[in-house]
């Protein structure tokens, strides 16, 4: 008996699967926000930066830099949270390699946060300084 050709995926089913994957992603962000203090701090910082950007009337290219910096920090923090969860799952007891994995992931967040801070200082520093100097 000859094999029949695979049936093409039906578009509505594909669309439902894509929508479900977004749902999983949003659930992951929400779970991390509920449990991770550092992510909660990043959320507060994000709100502050968005408020400052609105107050100072950032240019479009400046908003792009803010969006990239904020997105970088959030992404790194979420990946760090995922790495910590997996390491805790596979190595509940302390192991030097598990500790190193967690430290390196945290270091990536730190590097991204420092880069975002530099962007913030370059964009907002002169504006805040001009306000204070008046």
Structural features, described:
The protein is mostly helical. The protein is built from four helices and no strands. It is flat and about 80 Å long. It starts with 10 loop residues before the first helix and ends with a helix. 10% of the residues are buried. It is a multi-pass membrane protein. It comes from Hymenobacter sediminicola. InterPro entries: DAGK, DAGK_sf, UDPK.
List keywords for this structure.
mainly alpha; 4 helices; Helix Hairpins
Structure summarized in a few sentences:
The protein is an all-alpha fold and 134 residues long. It has helices at 11-35, 37-56, 60-90, 96-133. α1 crosses α2.
Radius of gyration: 21 Å
Q: What is the CATH topology descriptor? A: Helix Hairpins
Mean pLDDT: 92
**Helical segment count:** 4
How far do the termini sit from each other? 86 Å
Count of all domains: 1
CATH C-level class is Mainly Alpha
Helix and strand sequence: HHHH
Question: What is the annotated CATH architecture?
Answer: Orthogonal Bundle
Biggest pleated-sheet summary = none
Strand content: under 5%
Principal-axes geometry comes out as flat
Total number of beta strands: 0
The helix content is over 70%
The low-pLDDT segments are none
By secondary-structure content and strand pairing, the structural class works out as: mainly alpha
Cofactor: Mg(2+)
Family: Belongs to the bacterial diacylglycerol kinase family.
Organism: Hymenobacter sediminicola
InterPro entries: DAGK, DAGK_sf, UDPK
């Amino acid at each position: 008996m000859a094999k029949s050709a695979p049936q093409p995926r039906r578009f509505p089913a594909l669309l439902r699967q894509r929508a479900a994957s977004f749902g999983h992603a949003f659930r992951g962000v929400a779970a991390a926000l509920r449990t991770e203090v550092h992510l909660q701090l990043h959320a507060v910082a994000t709100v502050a930066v968005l408020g400052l950007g609105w107050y100072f009337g950032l240019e479009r290219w400046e908003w792009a830099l803010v969006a990239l910096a904020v997105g970088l920090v959030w992404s790194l923090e979420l990946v760090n949270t995922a790495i910590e969860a997996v390491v805790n799952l596979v190595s509940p007891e302390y192991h030097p390699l598990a500790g190193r994995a967690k430290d390196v992931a945290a270091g990536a967040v730190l590097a991204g946060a420092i880069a975002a801070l530099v962007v913030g200082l370059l964009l907002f520093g002169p504006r805040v300084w001009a306000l204070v100097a008046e």
